[in-house]
Structure formats: C-alpha cells, structure tokens
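Q: what sequence does this backbone want?
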C-alpha cells in the first residue's frame, strides 16, 4: 500500500468519466433535437401537400369532369375525353388517400421523436391555422353513366 496515495488517480479517472458522460449526453440531446425537427418539418410538409391536393387539386378535377360531361352530352367531345377526365379525378382521389397515409405516418414519427402524443399535440397546436381546413368534397361512389347520347348526324366524332 503506497504511503503517499491521496486518490488523485481515482479522482482524475472519475472526472474523466464524468466529462465523457456529459459529452455523450450533449451528443444525444443534439440527435434528439435534430430528429424532432426533421419529423416536424416532414409532418408539416406532408400535411400542407394534403391540404393543397384536397382544397385545390380535387375541385379542379371535379370541375374538369363536369365540363367534360357537359361537352360530351352536347356532342362537342367524344367519350374518350370524358373517360380521361374521370380517370384524372380518380387518380387525384388516390393521391389524396396516399397523402393522408403519409400524414398519418409522419405524425406517428413525430410523436415518437418528440416523446409521445402529448408533446407532439402541443407542437401541432402551436402551428395550427386559425380557420379549420375545408372538408374534402365527396366524390360519387359509382361512376356516372357514360352511355352515349344520340347525336344529330354530322356532329361530333364517330364512335
């Protein structure tokens, strides 16, 4: 047993371990903050894309279908134009469903990164717009009848 051992080596080792732990904690905190920020930005972007598709894109395709239907019924266009408009509307509805799924996944990732639903709800409430988003217009469950209407001879395109 050394006579002049005052525990300097043990204290120095404990101090070094404490500093290493503090450094590791700071790194983990930075990683958590980065994960929350990334999850939050992803959530906001996917939510905005959903709102844009639902409030802007869907009404445009519905209007396009209505105009194509009127043009078809008046004999100005053929059936292919009407079917293309219906296809575009269906693709838009599918895109909205896909975006709804992406928003849900992004929200779950945000909740996990932030430490739970309560924290994530607080983040969302802080950025929620003053007015609620408009409800998605409903599309018909069954496609409209696309039976050709009789046309006077010499008008429109041949079928």
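A:
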């Amino acid at each position: 047993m050394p006579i002049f051992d005052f525990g300097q080596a043990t204290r120095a080792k404990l101090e070094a371990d404490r500093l290493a732990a503090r450094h590791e904690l700071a790194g983990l905190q930075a990683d958590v903050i980065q994960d929350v920020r990334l999850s939050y930005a992803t959530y906001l972007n996917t939510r905005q894309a959903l709102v844009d598709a639902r409030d802007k894109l869907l009404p445009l395709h519905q209007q396009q279908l209505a105009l194509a239907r009127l043009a078809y019924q008046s004999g100005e266009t053929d059936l292919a134009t009407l079917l293309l408009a219906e296809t575009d509307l269906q693709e838009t509805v599918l895109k909205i469903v896909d975006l709804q799924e992406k928003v849900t996944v992004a929200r779950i990732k945000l909740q996990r990164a932030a430490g739970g639903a309560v924290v994530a709800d607080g983040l969302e409430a802080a950025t929620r717009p003053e007015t609620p988003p408009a409800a998605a217009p409903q599309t018909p469950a069954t496609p409209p009848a696309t039976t050709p209407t009789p046309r006077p001879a010499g008008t429109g395109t041949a079928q």
